[in-house]
Amino acid sequence: MNFVRLVFCVALSGIASIAWATAAPTSLTPLPAQLDQADGSFQVDEKTPIVVADNDASTRHTADYLAELIGRTRGLHLHVTTGVATAGAIVLQRDPRATVANSEGYSLDVTPQGIRITARDDAGLFHGAITLWQLLTPDAQQGTVLMPALHIRDEPRFVWRGLMLDSVRHFQSVAEVEQLLDQMAQHKLNVFHWHLTDDQGWRIQIKRYPELTRIGAWRTPPDAGHEGEPATYGGFYTQDQIRQIVAYAAARYITVVPEIDMPGHAQAAVAAYPQIGVTGKRPSVSVDWGVNPYLYNADDATFGFVDNVLDEVMALFPSRYIHVGGDEAVKDQWHASPAVQAKMHALGVKDEDALQGWFIDRVGKYLASHGRRLIGWDEILDGGVQADAAVMSWRGSDGAVKAAQQGHDVVLSPAPGLYFDQLQSDRTDEIAGRIPVQDLASVYAFEPVPKELDAAQAKHVLGAQANVWTEHMPTMGHVEHAVFPRLDALSEVDWSAAKSRDWHGFLARLPAQFARYRAQGIGYADSAFAPEVGVDRNAALASGTAQVSLSDQVGAGALHYTLDGSVPDLHSPLYHAPFSAKLPVTVRAATFAVDGSLLASPHQRVVDQASLLSLGGNEMPNCPGSDFRLRVQPMPDATSLAPVYSINVFDSCQLYPATRMDGVVAIHVDAVRLERNYALAHDAKLVVSRPRSTPFGELVVHQDRCDGQVLATLPLPNPDQAGRSFALDASLPAQHGEHALCLIFTAPIDGPLYAMARIALLPTGTK
Ligand code: ACM
Which domains does the chain have, with CATH numbers? Predict the structure, then answer.
C-alpha cells in the first residue's frame, strides 16, 4: 500500500473532521511503517484516562512519561490509572501475542471507542506512546483534541539508530545530556554514542586512576583569561552522574555506548599518566583541534591500565558494545620508539598499522571475555580485526563496504554526510562549523545500505548514526542548532521503510515538528527555510535600482515580504518572481508553510550603495587551490552563536568578487585575530607561508588575481598590543570597470590566524 500518498491526502484534502483544521493530524516523524485511516473519531480531553492494562512497572512508567509529555507540551493533563481497559480511554497494553513481532514495534488504534497501543515488548510500547504524543501535538496547541480514527502498525528498519555526542571538545551538563536523550526518544533513536575521552579532555571518572580527571579533565585554553576566554576549561562526569544518565537513557529505551578512544586521541590520558604514553614525557591536555601525536604505549603496563579502565567502564555501561575509537592514530611516536619497534619485532607484526590491529584485537578479546563486543571507527580494519568486532564507518562508506564484505556488522556514520558539525547552509548568519554544507535534503537522502553490498552482506548494516563533534559547539544552543531538524531526517532514514522516503511528504510534516520544538524550547535551525535576499550588485550599483530575488534552501515554503522594514505576515506580498526596487530599500522576508505556520522568521537585507560595496568575510570564497574552510568563533570557547569568521588554516586567502570599482577610493577591513589551535599532523607541511615586509605581516590586496597588481598593503598590528578585533584602512588607486580582489594575510604561520569580518569598498565622499 502506498501509505505515504495516503498521509499526504489526509493532510491536504480536508476530508477529516473540523478539529483537523489547523494541521495534518498524521504529521508523524519518523513516518510509521503502515498507517490506515478509518471512520469516525475519538475526543481526548482532561477526562480521558491513560489506562495501564497489564499493571507492570515498565508500562506504568511509559504511561507516566506520556502523561507528563502531553501535559508539558499540549497543556492536556491526563490521569494514569491501572486496571481493566475501558471504553473512552487510552489503553497501553503489553501483549505477547501482539501482531507486530518486532520488539521495538507496536500497533496503535484510534477508534470511536478509544485509543489502544499494543506491543510485545516495553520498547515497542514506549515508541507507540511517542507516536500517540505526536498525534496529539500536530500543532502543539492547548486543549481538547478530536482524533481521527486510524490504525498504525509500526516497526523500525534498523536496530542501530544512533547519535554521537562529543563531550570532550566541549562539555555538556548532565541536564543538557538528558535533554538530548529526551529528543532522541522523541525521534525513536535508540543508541547514544558518548565520546568521553580525547586529546582535549578525559570526561569520565575512573576511581582507580584519579589523575585522569584531576589533570586530564582540564585544559588551559590559548589566551586563557583574556577578553572572555576562560582561565581553564573542562569538567567530567562522576560515576554517579554516569549511572544517572545511563538510567535516564534506559528509561527511554536508549542504550548508551561509551567511547574510550585508543590508541590515538590519548593526549589527556597521557597528560594524567605519562607512563602509559610512549615518550615518558607529560604533555599538557591539548587545546588544539585536529590530530594530535600522543599515543598509548603498547606494553603490558599500559594494557593493565586499559583493562582496569575498561573494568570500570563496563561496570557503568550495560551496553553490549563498547567503542574503543581507533581513529586518526598517527603512528610517529610508535615509529620513533625503540621499545615499540622491539615489541613489533617480537610480535612479528610488519608495521605500525598492524601493531594497532594487534592492540585493538587485544582489547577486543578482553571485552569479549567479559561478554562485551568491540566497536571502533573504520581504521580498525586497517590492521586487521577479529571477526566479531563491529565497525563504524566514518571515512565515507568505504569502510562499511569492506567491513560488511568481510562479515563485520557495520554502522554508517560517514563524514561529511552524517557529521552534524558540518554547516547546514552557507547563509551569512549560519553558525560555526565545517564545509562542505550538509543540508537537510542531503541528510534525508542518505541511504545506509551501500549499493555495493549484496543481500547477505546488507544484513550486516546495523543502521546509521549522526555525529555531533563539538570543537565549534561550546554550548547546547550550538548543539541544538546543528542537530535539529537534521535529526528528523536521520530518524526517518533509520526508522522508516526505504520505499516510503518522500522528501515533500517529510517537508509537509516538519511544521508540526517545529511546533513541538517550540513547545519544548528547543533552538532548532531554520536554515533550510530562511529567506535569502539576492541582488545583482553590479547592476544595482550602475542603475540605482535593485533586481531583488528571494529564495530559500528547500524552496517549499511561501515567501512573503515587505519593502518598508515592517514585519512581513501572510497579508504581505507573496514572492513569485524577481522584482525591481529603487535604492535604498530594506527587504524583509519570512517563510510560511502551506498551513500558514511560520517556517522561518523574518530576515532582512538593507540594499544601498554602502551595502552593495561591502561583503562579510563569510561570503568571500577561498582563493583557488585550497578548499579547506571552517567557520569559527572569536575564541575557542566563546559561547555566543555569533559572530563567526571563515578561516582556511592552510592558506589565509579570500576573493572579493568582481565589482564595479568606478569611484572607489579606499578599502576598510574589520579584521579579527584568532588562535591557531589546530593540530594538523602530517598535513602541517601543506600550510602556505607567504613573505612579509613588516614584523606581524600584512593584509595584501591584489587586483583581479592573487598574483595581480598589489593595490594596497595593510600592516597587521602587534598582537600583544591590539585587541582581538581591529580595523585596517588604506586608499586604493583609481580603477575603472569591474575588478575582483584577492586578499591575502602574510602573517607568520607559527603565530595567530587572521580573518575578515567585513570588507567595505569606500567611494569618494565616504569617511
Ligand atoms: C572521526 O571523525 N575521527 C571519527
Answer: 34-154 (3.30.379.10), 532-606 (2.60.40), 614-763 (2.60.120.260)
